[in-house]
Amino acid sequence: MDMTPDRFRPSGERYLGRRSTMHISPPRVTASGKGEPGEPGDAEAFLEGFEQILADAAATGRRLTRSEIESRRDLGARAAEAGLGWRALVRAHLAAGRTSRPAGADPDAVLAVVEQAVDAFADGYERAQRRVVRKEEAARREFIDDLLHRRGDPGHLASRCERFGLRLSRTHAVAVAEGPEKYDESDPVPGQVAGELFARFENRRILFTTKDGRMICIAGGHQDDVLTHFAKLVHTVTGASRVAVGRSRPGAVGIGHSYEEALNALDVAQRMGLDDPLLRAADMLVFPVLARDRQALVDLVQHTLGPLETARGGAQPLLDTLSVYFDSGCVAAAAARELSLSVRALTYRLARIQALTGNDPTDPTHRYTLQTAVIGARLLEWPGRPL
Prior knowledge:
With about 375 residues, the protein is α+β, with helices and mostly antiparallel strands. It contains 15 helices and six strands. Helix 12 crosses helix 15.
């Protein structure tokens, strides 16, 4: 366990640790872009001038001068750029303070010099790390936007995918979660979802992010357990959410298609009034087919259901009756219970619908036309929205 006190731990390192839960990527990135810290012995190369400062300042008890502090900051930044680990650097300063302290110097004075030097060194180190964090985060957001919207050269996009933990030799699927609120990566809800997701699947290649207020998870097409668990986590953490999963597709372009399918599934669910917490685009292919030719769908709704508008109370009550009747498997008793009607009252409504539209909801031949028109009315949000 790392026992380095927080006063000697650059804030940038804590920041990186928190953000790393947001996606799987190579090991902790340093300002040089290296993933692994340098060898412990390399840290001594960044103590240039420290022994002289220690000998002079500890002997007199003075504080470090401005130039001495700036030299420590500069070395700290250079150490971060070289990829040196913070623990090794602190250890090197403490060891140098122990072995190079002036004979007869007051231990408190020695410790004061070490503290000032390490503090300045940490300041330079964390500034360099903050720069790379901002740079890496900007690069990551740009990559995610290009990936989900299929922008840029596919070859270049594929090379960037490996850096962020995705192997495009495999298929991938995208799950999009829409909660009761809009989230970004600084919010605690996505942080909790990501933390628990990566704790459960720590050896999987997963990308988690937020976009347009939604939480997004990208996983291998063969890892449906990851996406299903993601949906359960989101629902548990938010208390009320809906997750849509696009179909598994190959390549970087396929990820963008899967993302669009998930978004379309969420849109259809909202229009259709579906309350399932987990939606799969593969199970909803009929809806994009119907919506593809909008004019044909408008004509179907107008021709088949338009006459319902002449009924007392308008079309909505009879349209709701058809929706519930079809959703109940055309079982009159079940539909009547759902609508809080008697079976006789339900039968009267169905007869009224037949009289107005010329289509009998209980006849299998007419039923298909009516049910397709009812689905179209939901997609078009009719009769609330004029056709």
